[in-house]
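Entry for the shared binder. Reason: the reviewer on the internal report wants the predicted structure included alongside the sequence.
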Amino acid sequence: MGFTTYQNKNSESDNSLSMAADYAKYLKKYTDTMDKLDAIDEDSLSDADLEYYIEVSGRITSKLAEVAAQ
């Protein structure tokens, strides 16, 4: 579940326990993803892999900026 889906689903919910569980799942996925990205040695990537790495990092940063602006 993406964060936008999480927001839409829970903005209409009165179930705090369900919202907290969904949020915990989201944070776990985020933490796992960031740990994997941080573990990548950018110097060992091919040009194509580095380009993809930069693209993915940019998408994540963009999504985080959207959330922060709300």
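Summary line for the report: The chain has a mean pLDDT of 84.
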